[in-house]
Structures are given as C-alpha cells and as structure tokens.
Amino acid sequence: MGTLTPTIALVPVGTPIPTTYNGSTIAKLDPWMILLIVLFSLLALMTALFLVYWYINNIRTTDVHRRLLRDAVVDSRYRRLLRQAGLEESFRFPTWEYPDWEEPEQLQQLREQERKRLEMLTAMAQELRQRGELSEEERADLQQLEWEMEQIGKELSGRLREERIAELRRQREKLEAEHKAKLRQIYEQAVQEAESLVPASLTVAGMGINAAFFIELTAVLTIIFGVIILGLVGVLESGQIGPILAAVAGFVLGKAAVQRPGPAQPHLPPMSEERD
Known about the structure:
Layout: H1 31-85, H2 104-129, H3 136-157, H4 162-197, H5 211-232, H6 238-258
C-alpha cells in the first residue's frame, strides 16, 4: 500500500464558500443587504401601525361629526313636517271643535272650593236653626244661606259633578295620546329622511371598518412582517413560512365572509320630553 500524501487546495481570497444557512436563502445575500431588508420591514411595520391608529382617531372624530349633522337634519326635517301638518309640539285642546269645553283640572279645583263653601254654609245654617226663635233679619239670612246652598248643590250635581269631570279628563287624555302618536310618526319620518340624506360616514368607516377591524389589522400586519423578518434571518424555513401566511389569509377571508354586513337599519332614538 502506498503512502498517502495530503494535498492542500488554495482558494483565492474573496471567493464565497458554498454553504447553506438553515435551508434559507440568507447565505446568498450580503449582510448589509440583509440588515437593510430587516430595517425596511420594521419601518414598514411601524408606518402601518401609525396609519392604523391615526385612522382610528379619524373615524371616531368623523362619527361624532356625523351624529351632529344627522341630529341637525332630523330637527330641520321635523320642524318642516310639523308646519306642513299644521301641528305644534305642545298640545292645545281644539276649542274650535269643542266650544263648550272646560278644563277638568280647573273644574276639579272649583268643585273642591264649592264643596268647602257648601260645608261652611251648612254649618252656618245649622247654627241659626239651633237658636229656635229667629228675628226677621236672621230668617232672611237663613233663607239666603239655603238659597246659596241649593245653587251650590245644583252645581255639584250638574256642571261640577265627578262623572262629568272624569269624562272630560278621559277625552282630553285621548286627544293628547292621538297628538303624541302624530308627533311620533312625524319624528320617525324625519329620522328616515335624515338617514337617507346624511351619508353613513364621511371616511372609510362607511365600509364597515371600525376599531375592532384596526386591532385585527394590527395583529395581522405584525404577524406578516414578523414572519418575513424571521425568514430573512433564517429562523424560519421557506416550508414554514407558507403555512403561516396561509393561516393568516384563511383567518382574514373567513372572518370577512362570516361578518358580511347586512342592510343598515335606521336607529330611532326616543323623543325628548319636550316633544312628548
């Protein structure tokens, strides 16, 4: 057997040594290029996050402006529809339709006053009767008291009777309820007209984008840029990056399909006490 003689192959300086780095293409790139790519990815991520939170603040401000504009349009249309219908917000009893109308509250107060006056006159007449023999003047006073008591009794059993006052009160409550129903109908019509005139939003919020969407977008962007950076530095192989990006895409597309917005329903706020 012959003697083995070791040989040394001289490699020129600057010639790259072929190798792999965890199955990644990072070994084929210059280190400065890798650093620039990582810095660019971080800068892009920070820019995306800044735009996300800037849009969140913009949408919140715009939503406030939209509500103010909508309320102004609702009030304007409501006043116009009231004038067209010949109505007022405050209820006024139609005395032209009921010329003999009397307010039940005033009649109730008058009834209480007359009843107390009748009790006082009855006591005075009873005191005169208990005296026995009366003078001409006292008999005249007693007759006057009895006549006033008779007139008060007629009022209490006629114009000021409890049944009549209760009937007037029911009639007034019925007309008030009809008036409120008309006001509510006019207000709902004003809200519908305002919803059709005022746009759903003045920014991208009209596309169904809200704060929750931006939170999800932040997480997705962070994952995507993080995967790209980890792939560039060789922590993740190309076979691992694909499934991660596919999972992120499936989550986004699946959520968009499930939460597809339906037709917007107008929100009818309760009327204020003044309009009631």
